[in-house]
Structure formats: C-alpha cells, structure tokens
Amino acid sequence: MTRPIIVTIHKKALRHNFQVVRKAAGGRAVWAVVKANAYGHGLRNAVEAFSEADGLALLEVSEAVRARECGWTKRILLLEGFFSQKELPEIEQHEVETIVHSAWMIDVLKRNAPFKNLRCHIKINTGMNRLGFRPEEYQAVVRELSAIAGVTVCGAVTHFANAEPTYTKGGPATFEKQLDRMSSIGSTQGEKCLANSAATLFHPEVGGDAVRAGVILYGASPDSNISERELHVRPAMTFSAKIIAIQNIQAGDAVGYGSRWIASRPSRIAVVACGYADGYPRSMPNGAPTWVEGKIAPLVGATSMDMLEIDVTDVPEATVGSIVELWGEHIPVNQVAKLCGTIGYELLCALAPRVNVRVDEE
Known about the structure:
alpha/beta
C-alpha cells in the first residue's frame, strides 16, 4: 500500500516504559496488560518488549494462544475470565490463569471438574460495579472454589474506578473507599493484585503482591491532567501522514464538509492523507494541534473519511510530502483525545486495520 499514512511503534519506548513501571511497583510482580492488540501497538511487539514482565494480562483465550505462539512462556491471566465452558480445555492446555468474577462461573467449573490444575483469581467488586464478588463474600468463594477438584485459588484482584490524583474527591467510589473495602477481606493466602496503572504510579500505599500496568506501558498518562513528561514515560506510537495537496484560499472561504471553518485571512491549507476511516476522530474540533516541519499547525474543518485539512499559513516550510504528526512525541495522544471528549486509550485502540504499521526496533 502506497498511501502515505503510517503508524510507527517504538519498541525502545515500550521497554523504557516497562522499566518505569518496574521501579514504581517497588518489588511487586508486574502483569503487563496487552489486551486490544496491546492497545493498538501489536501483541507480538508487546510480548517482545515486555519480556521482563512477570506475566501478561489480556482478554481472550485466542490472544493467550497468540502470545504463546509469539514465544511467551511465563504466566498469562484472562482479565474477564472465560466466557464459555468450551474455553476451559484450551485454558488448561496453554496454562492460562483465569479471573472468576461471578457465581455462574463457579457453577461451570463444578460441572466440568476435575481439572489438572486450573488456576483462578477471585475478582472483588470494591465499587467499580462491573465485575466481581462483594468483599464479604470472598472467604465463601475461596472455600467453594477450593473444593473443586483441580482448581487452585491464586488470590484476589480488584480494580480502582478512580485512582487518578486529579479525580474530584467525594462520591461512593473514591480511591480511599475502594481501598478500605478491599482491606476488609483481611489477610489472605495467595496473591493480592490491586493496582492498575494509576494506582501503581500514584498510590504506593495500595501494596499487594502484584500490579497490572496498562496504558502507562504505552507512554500515555493514566491521568490526562498529568503529563507523560512528568511521569518519565515516552509515547510508543507515532501516528503520522503526509501532505498530499496545498490549497491557497482567500478570507471568507470555507474548508470541508459543513463549512464549519471559514478563513479570516488569506490562508495556505494543507490536505493530509488521514481521515476518520483511519482512526482520527471526525469529532475533532477546529484548532486541534498537529506537528509539521517543527511547528504546530491547527486542524481546520471537519475530518473527512480519508482526508483532513490543517492550516499551514504560518508554516511556510510545509509542502506536499511533508510529514504531519497527528499524535506521538510532539502531540501527546491524551491532549488530542481531550479535545474531542474522549481519552487516549480509545484513540490508541481505534486505529483502522488499513493503516500501515512500521516497527522501530530501536
């Protein structure tokens, strides 16, 4: 494909970010979260870059199998557990560990026992109210699972809804309230894995035996109000495309569908080979920053399916063939995401399959 749009994955940045997490973990084991094709960065790239992780955490058995095929020999955890009893033989075959979050899963395990050695982690709902048992149910769940032939209970897992420092205090699921609820299960045998990216970085008091690091490994801050530079992480993805045309327009001329941007002066408008079908949101507003020839150039007009426009009037060096960074080293993905009412996670995961991907090994 010769269309001039590309995603570059920086493996050196992935490795660097892992070391930042390893230090923040303070001796706790590190699960590297690689779900959603490693947040859009490619599962194989993540397996290779996070080779020092203690385990991988992902979503589906098929992803676990792919990780094994990529050479991963250490632990793998299914973050949402199994979805069907049909998956259990494959889970055992590939030595994959599973979350157990609901009574129906216990029933499935009872019906399919005995197992050779099925390793389970009990999900505790401390206020997120997605998956998990209440803290007061924990001991009963341990007893019930332990009574199933071939099932080993590894420990307890929870997930914080609001571990970001800039989260407004108050409400039913503050970090402090969730941590207090988790402490009510008392001292337990096995592992406790409590901290996500935000809790790992900002709340060492969480403790536990392991952490689960996700978006921070890919160089995006889990708190959009705290910069990646402050956290000493590097973006592992650069999304860029080239300028394919220049339009010289007059004051009063409009750009794009709906004519939502009208020039207030004579302007040079660059057409960039990227659109919403590539993963750049149509909801991005006028003024969203891009980086071209060492300068900021603002988005003008609505993003089309295959193209977008930027104002390069003040970037005379910009011409056909110039590379435009949409997010990456100079334009943080969280900054771009915030402008259109979303988070960096979504943009990283939403890149279209048609976009070329290049892996920078160094």
